[in-house]
Design goal:
Elements: E1 2-6, H1 11-22, E2 26-31, E3 44-49, H2 57-70, E4 75-77, H3 82-88, E5 98-99, H4 104-111, H5 113-123, E6 131-133, H6 136-144, E7 149-153, E8 163-164, E9 186-190, E10 196-204, E11 207-220, E12 224-230, H7 234-245, E13 253-261, E14 270-276, H8 288-295, E15 303-304, E16 310-312, H9 314-321, H10 325-338, H11 349-352, H12 355-365, H13 373-376, H14 393-403
Parallel strand pairs: 1-2, 1-4, 2-3, 4-5, 11-15
Antiparallel strand pairs: 6-9, 7-8, 7-9, 10-11, 10-13, 11-12, 12-16, 13-14
Helix pairs in contact: 1-8, 4-5, 4-14, 9-10
């Protein structure tokens, strides 16, 4: 395959590039700034800097299309929320290129947490009681009904902007800063005790080809995972297939879910929290040949990450230790000695040397507010439910149906 991987700033995008390139595929990368780590992998045939899909959608699509034609690219694999802009404008991509993603309508249903809650209930997947609010007054009323609550915007990601009165993030976001609207609703749920469990899947024609279930052994500021350990996938694989079956027939793409396990190690009891209709770090726990075959739909049975497999983003683990050194240092020292880095064995160290450029990119977007860097890292490639420039009438109708609660 001749593949273009977009949003190459992400560690999991770099991992996907390495895996596809190492088994013989010709891989190109793209992002909105030149310093993206994945754009400097030795496994690339070339890389591209694009306009922002969020702020310059027409120019983004035109730049991607020209590059696809110039390099005879067969498949475009999105790795972040640029997937929504590409899906909404798929008809404007060059003939013959395949976008490795579901339809815009399916992606919107999965990404909007309110519509996803309805989808999960219809698919028979356990989900906590959920209240959708569309005003600050409704938000205050809803959180007053739960002794322990957890709330977030329907369009959000990365564990930032969470409103809760329980756990390490309690009180981090003031309720006054949360402004639900009909166009940007919030979800309020009871706080569910138990560790977060995440999944990543490759789906081809409605069938799961590859699947990982993992826990975040370490998190950056109690948010984004930076160390990962695979756990048993029996239940989450079944739930993932149930959710995929509720989508349009033939759904193809990468899809990830977050669960809370409030059972025991011997008897997990999962409740689903949200969906990211894109890859996450779970891909890191799979072998290169399995990932490549899964993307091409060549596996008769889904390949599953082996429980106990561990990986970490070593640079991030070290950096996080210094944010809370007394609590993090013992575990950090253990992990540095015993857990394999995501880049181990690739002989591709030059790529991760560009990591400071990603932080600088986020700092630039956040206008120097250090507290907002994490939220800003993807601000030029996210999608928050707005109509997309140049989208078709069919996709506009699908989006309106999501917002109106009809799907």
């Amino acid at each position: 395959m001749r593949v273009l991987v977009t949003s190459s700033r992400n560690t999991f995008a770099l991992d996907l590039i390495r895996k596809l390139g190492s088994v013989g595929h010709t891989v190109f990368a793209a992002d909105t700034y030149d310093g993206a780590v994945g754009s400097h992998s030795r496994f690339l045939a070339g890389h591209l800097t694009t306009p922002s899909p969020r702020f310059e959608t027409d120019a983004f699509i035109a730049t991607i299309s020209a590059y696809v034609e110039e390099h005879d690219i067969e498949v475009v694999i999105p790795t972040f929320e640029e997937v929504f802009y590409l899906a909404a404008r798929a008809a404007d991509l060059p003939p013959g290129v395949r976008l490795y993603a579901g339809s815009f309508g399916d992606l919107a249903r999965l990404h909007d947490k309110a519509s996803f809650q309805r989808l999960a209930q219809g698919a028979g997947v356990p989900i906590p009681e959920t209240v959708v609010v569309t005003s600050p007054d409704e938000l205050r009323t809803a959180i007053a009904d739960f002794p322990r609550y957890f709330a977030r915007a329907a369009f959000s990601r990365g564990g930032v902007g969470l409103l809760t009165n329980t756990g390490p993030l309690a009180g981090k976001v003031p309720v006054e800063d949360c402004v639900p609207t009909p166009e940007q609703p919030w979800l309020v749920q009871p706080f569910v005790d138990g560790p977060m469990v995440c999944t990543y899947s490759v789906v081809v024609d409605g069938t799961v080809q590859a699947h990982t279930t993992y826990r975040a052994a370490e998190q950056w500021a109690h948010s984004t995972a930076i160390a990962f350990v695979a756990v048993d996938s029996t239940d989450t694989l079944r739930y993932t297939q149930q959710l995929v079956a509720a989508l349009d027939p033939g759904f193809t793409g990468q899809i990830s879910f977050d669960f809370v396990d409030h059972g025991t190690e011997a008897a997990p009891d999962y409740k689903i929290i949200e969906c990211n209709p894109r890859p996450t770090n779970g891909v890191i726990l799979l072998e290169a040949d399995d990932v490549a075959k899964a993307i091409q739909g060549e596996l008769a049975e889904p390949v599953v990450a082996i429980p106990g497999t561990e990986r970490q983003i070593t640079l991030a683990v070290i950096a996080d230790a210094f944010t809370e050194p007394l609590s993090h240092l013992p575990k950090t020292l253990h992990d540095l000695l015993h857990v394999r880095d995501v880049g181990a064995g690739w002989w591709d160290d030059a790529a991760m040397l560009w990591s400071p450029a990603t932080i600088a990119h986020g700092a630039k977007i956040s206008h120097g507010d250090r507290k907002e860097v994490l939220a800003a890292l993807g601000d030029d490639i996210v999608w928050n439910g707005e109509p997309i420039e140049g989208m078709s009438e069919t996709d506009a109708a699908a989006l309106e149906a999501v917002h109106a609660g009809r799907v």
